[in-house]
Amino acid sequence: MSSKTLFDKIWENHVVKEIPNGPTVFYIDRHLIHEVTSPQAFAGLNKRGIKVARPQKVLATADHNVPTLNQHLPIKDVLSRKQVAMLEKNCEEHQIDLYGLGHENQGIVHVIGPELGMTQPGMTIVCGDSHTSTHGAFGTIAFGIGTSEVEMVLATQCLLQNKPKQMRINIEGELEEGVSSKDIILHIISKISASGATGYFVEYAGSAIRALSMEARMTICNMSIEMGARGGLIAPDEVTFNYLKGKEFAQQADDFDKAVVEWMELYSEKDASFDEEIHIHAKDIEPMITYGTNPGMGMNINKNVPTFEGGTTAERENWEQALSYMGIKEGELLLGKKLDYIFIGSCTNSRIEDLRKVAEIVKGKHKAENVTVWVVPGSQKVQKQAIAEGLDKIFEEAGFMLRQPGCSACLAMNEDKIPPGKLCLSTSNRNFEGRQGPRARTMLVSPMTAAAAAITGEITDVRRFLALYN
After folding, report:
1. Beta partners for residue 343, in sequence order
2. Distance between CA 325 and CA 149 in Å, rounded?
3. Alpha-carbon torsion 229, 234, 240, 243, what sign?
4. Fold of 6-277
5. Sign of CA dihedral 210, 8, 348, 394
6. Over the range 271-302, which residues count as b (16 or more CB within 10 Å of their CB) and which as e?
7. What distance lies between CA 409 and its chain's CA centroid?
8. CB within 8 A of 133, min separation 6: which ones?
9. Confidence class of residue 469 from pLDDT cuts 50, 70 and 90?
10. Quick count: other Cβ atoms within 10 Å of Cβ 391?
């Protein structure tokens, strides 16, 4: 009997039926939905006269289109208001729990699932959103699906899936001060490219991963998609169990202890085989920044923008277009470059741990005059906790704007848009052309790097910043 990977164990436990020479009928434990990718799916069900198969397995929230100011008022944007209203209508008709605007559990879908204890080891989780991979941090098979698949899961609680290839990325050693999980994943993507894990499900392993908090692990799994992977996951351990214990929807008392016994079996066995393995030393990872228009165009923050080497004419043209769009040149040193906006938020970096790190760096200081700083918590619970800890006062005194929960300027599908031509240092996950608003320019960094830059008003090596102020 061959040794099994963590992915194998979860996959095999959810196979409903193997179709000869075809895909697998795959059972889904938890289906998360929001206002953007669900309306067409519900319309398809209604057209066929079908009810949601297992509404108790579905959780809905409003996050992409919601404003992050004055959430008690009607949504100004017509399309956004319509989508949120449709979500409310569909959830009511199909008896699905909805955490809409004004609800104490409302927030970004990939933030509220874990913080409520709904995301648990061994599960299969899907959502009509690519960053569903975030939940893999708990030892789950979690991935994004398209609208037609959203309809399929609503109707059957199953999906048709082909088993992907498997990759393991091992990171050993200790991270130096100023380096975080965001830097780990940006480092990986810069090494293997934005398509380097296409066709794979990635397991992250090694002493550096085991040393991370759950929130840091979520950041890494969140951006698995940015290197083309189907998803990413991390074996559950004591850090996972301690995070889940006492959560609202986690098992209680003896039932929790019994669950932990089962969860402890979720790991890749010693001789388990992967289609590809990558080994990285934590000491080689420095604070990272992207300089182009895809997440693979990243580098150590104190290095010069690389020059294009090799590749086709088309690739060269794409490279030049990316640098032209960003307003930078090959060989340029980015340190000291003036910024316009700082965005701290998104399903990648909007949890309480992220906000605490930012507050720790900026406490007693004030933002530079040339930058506008938005801090957007990932959920109502995160916002409430931040206020309870006095982080809101720290941000206010620093000249930062603490907004209300939502996806915000990560994707500008709402009122939070970076103005045309402005340069934004962002803790989000994507830096495509126009991602944060028409002609907006985005550089991806960690919350610590963003915090340091907010004070200096320019791209800054957070390690030097910490050495200066500590």
Report:
1. 374, 426
2. 35
3. negative
4. Aconitase; domain 3 (3.30.499)
5. negative
6. ebebeeebebebeebbbbbbbbbbbbbbbbbb
7. 14
8. 142, 143, 144, 221, 222, 223, 224, 225, 229, 230, 231, 232
9. confident
10. 25
**Strand pairing category for 58-61 and 97-99:** parallel
DSSP codes of every residue in 105-152? T-B-HHHHHHHTT---TT-EEEESSGGGGGGGGGS-EEEE--HHHHHH
| C-alpha of 393 from chain center | 27
DSSP-based three-state secondary structure for 98: strand
155 contact partners, CB below 8 Å, separation of at least 6: 45, 50, 52, 53
Q: Each residue of 422-442: pLDDT tens digit?
A: 999 999 999 999 999 999 999
Residue 35 corresponds to which amino acid?
E
| pTM of the predicted protein model | 0.97
Q: Report the length, in residues, of the chain.
A: 470
* 12-52 confidence digits (pLDDT tens): 999 999 999 999 999 999 999 999 999 999 999 999 999 99
In the numeric block, the tokens 């990171």 are attached to 171
Top-tier CATH class for 288-469: alpha beta
What's residue 1's pLDDT?
A: 65
Coarse DSSP helix, strand, coil percentages of the chain, rounded to the nearest 5 percent:
35, 20, 45
Residue 343 tokens, joined? 């965005």
Q: Which of 413, 377, 432 has its CA nearest to residue 34?
A: 413
Q: Among positive and negative, which fits the CA dihedral 297, 303, 304, 309?
A: negative
Residues 6+ apart with CB under 8 A from 382: 107, 111, 115, 350, 351, 352, 355, 405
Ordered by start, the domain boundaries in the chain are 6-277, 288-469
Report DSSP state, residue 186. Answer: H
- Is 6-277's fold the same as 288-469's? yes
The CB density around residue 221, as the number of other CB atoms within 10 Å, is 29
10 Å Cβ neighbour count for 191? Answer: 15
